[in-house]
Each structure stands twice: as C-alpha cells, then as structure tokens.
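The authors assume throughout that readers already know how a fold can be written as discrete tokens. For illustration, here is how one protein appears when written out as sequence plus structure tokens.
>
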Amino acid sequence: MAEMRAMEFTGPSEDLHLRLTARPVPEPTDGEMVIQICAAGVTPTEKLWYTTTHCPDGSRRANAIPAHEFSGAVAALGRGVSGYRPGDLVFGMNDWFADGAIAEFCKAKPASIATKPSSLSHAEAASTPIGSLTAWQGLHSHAKLRKGERVLIHGGAGAVGLFAVQVAKLQGAHVIATAAAANIDFVKQLGADEVINYRERRFEEAGKVDVIFDTVGGETLQRSWNILGPGARVVTIAADAESSSDPRVKKAFFIVEANAEQLAYMAELFDSGVLKAFVKAEVPLENAARAYAGSVPGNPGKIVIRTT
C-alpha cells in the first residue's frame, strides 16, 4: 500500500503536539474524493477543538491529522462522484472529524469543494475557504446584512475578520472594524470606513450599529450588546461563545458549514479581484508545529502549510 507523509497530533488532549509520520494514502469510498494536497490553511486553535480529540459518537480520538481547508488536485474518485476528473485543481474543506490536509493526500466530498480560483496560487487558495465562507455565512445567512447598514467587525485584521471587512463592504455597508495599531492601514485598505485601535479607544465611541460580527468573544462581546440599535443582530465565532450560558450568545454563535455553491461564488469573486486573499507565511510540512505554536511571524493573513 502506498504511503504518504503527514503530521498528526499526539500526546494527551491537554498538551497536543505535532509529529511527522507515515500514513497509508487514503482510498475514496462511495461519494468521496481523494485530493492531492498542495497547501493547507492553519487554524492554531484546532488543538482545542472537540473534533480533534473526539469521534462523532463521543469516544476518544487519537492521532488526528489537522487542517480542514486546502488546495490541490483531484487524485481519485469514489463511486457516484461526478463533475470532476483526476488532475482537476480544487480548493475547499473537509469534515471536522475527518483527517485533515497537513498531509500529502486527504479525503473530501464534492459538496465541500469547488474549482480553484485560477488567479490564486495554491497557498493563497488554501488560505480562503474557512475565512471567506465564515464571513459570507455570518453576514448574509445569519445577520442578513443590508446595504447602508452600520456593521462593527471585531478583529478586522484576523484570518476571518479580513474577509468580513471585504464582504461587508461589498454588500454596501458602512464598515467599522477594530484592529491593533500596526494593522490599521491594512484594514482600511480592505475597505473599512472606520478603524478603531482597540488598545487606545473604546469601540463604543463608534455609536449604535446594526450588525456586529465578533471574532474575539469574552469582554469584547459582552460590551457589544450596549451599542446595538433597533433590530440589530450579532453573530460570533469566538470559541468561548460555544459553551456560554447566555442565551443571547448562544443565539449569536455559529460554526461555518462547507458549501460548494458558495465556494464557487467565492472563487468568482477572487478571480474578478473583488475579494483578496492574504497569506501570512508559507511553512513546509515538516515545520507545521511552528505554525500551530504561533511562532511564525508575518503580516496579517493565514499561515499555510506547503506539502509539495
């Protein structure tokens, strides 16, 4: 059986670390595809996710391969899969409970991928699926943002926030974002009308808003309820919101869902230049542990693991 290189989490759940290992190249079952990975996007908090340490039935999971967004080429098709051929360039996501893309191959379903934007490199494409879909679903599906509304985005330079700023501006909203001083110009270039240095000013000074897109949580989210105008909506992706007992927070919290149709639309926006992707740094597969430890410097954007 052919083998591939992969990085897997090992150790106790409270102290996971990555190690390089050899795994069998996965084979597609019915309705699945195998993707040869060129690049994978890093979400450092994945070490803390329930899906990293547990199976769907609640039993313990060990040696998970991380990273659930990727760009690469179709390597094999399971029975019943149509619309793609081996060699097609694709980008997208796979299931949170599945082995991820910090490996030379991974499995995915057609409903969670789309043709790679031709204008983006594999590294750029791999940095986009989770962030762009989260921004789109948060602002459109959940908040139902309308043209002319005032939206406040907490964490405008983050891996999701940078897409939220762009998507909100595309919708014709008045965009206010929070960011560190070093990232203010960057967030303005994304399209924000106002950028608040959260270390020097309180975001409450911006006045009432119609929509809040929160990526920070904690005290930032709690303070946000005070600046909501009539009919205002809040969405949050902050990790601590998932376990909150506050009914307002529970209602506001959501987790992004894979969606091939939306991914294809995102690809069109990237290729038209309306949306831009940002890669903080590219790291070879064998150095992935540095990316998950947060020790890779760079400009705003997502860290990407190269597997080729």
About this structure: Residues 8 and 64 are 5 Å apart (CA to CA). The first strand starts at residue 3 and ends at 10. The radius of gyration is 19 Å. DSSP finds nine helices and 14 strands in the chain.
